[in-house]
């Protein structure tokens, strides 16, 4: 069985993230979507909320071979723990490759895990979690940029700020 890991902060999960996850689920027997907790960042949504939202969105999409979890450790340690041999990362045209290549080389050195880069769907490549939060902060409509369940959560989070 081939197991892949799709890591990210997913704060919040976007339509672009879901596209990469759903496409990965077609290629691998099992895909672990891992919310990577970074102590250096202050997320808008808690780790538990991010995990729950991703689970709900993937259930709605019918992805049955996807496991959603989180880690505050190295992704390579998570890969070893679950027997994953591949990390899948989506790439947009905004310099993602340069940012991800160094990490891919480190992951291969640390754990022998290869990184597969999937190009973003051109319709979605402009979407990022940062852009979604910025649009929402300024009262813009993020429908279609994120799963439906995220839209009211963003509004609620922003009214609490």
Describe the structure.
This protein is an alpha/beta fold and 161 residues long. It has one domain: Rossmann fold (3-Layer(aba) Sandwich). 45% of the residues lie in helices and 19% in strands. The chain is built from 6 helices and 5 strands; from the N terminus they run βαβαβαβαβαα. A 5-stranded parallel beta sheet has the order 3-2-1-4-5, sandwiched between helices. It is globular. This is Phosphopantetheine adenylyltransferase. Its cofactor is Mg(2+).
Helix/sheet category: alpha/beta
Low-confidence regions: none
- Would you identify the CATH H-level superfamily? HUPs
SSE string, helices as H and strands as E: EHEHEHEHEHH
Strand content: 15-25%
What is the typical, i.e. mean, pLDDT?
A: 95
Q: What is the 3D form?
A: globular
Count the E strands.
5
Rg measurement, Å: 15 Å
Strand order of the largest sheet: 3-2-1-4-5
Measured as a percent range, the helix fraction is 40-55%
Main sheet specs: 5 strands, parallel
Number of domains: 1
Q: Please tell me the CATH architecture by its name.
A: 3-Layer(aba) Sandwich
Number of helix segments? 6
As for the CATH topology, it is Rossmann fold
What CATH first level would be assigned? Alpha Beta
Q: What is the CA-CA span between the terminal residues?
A: 45 Å
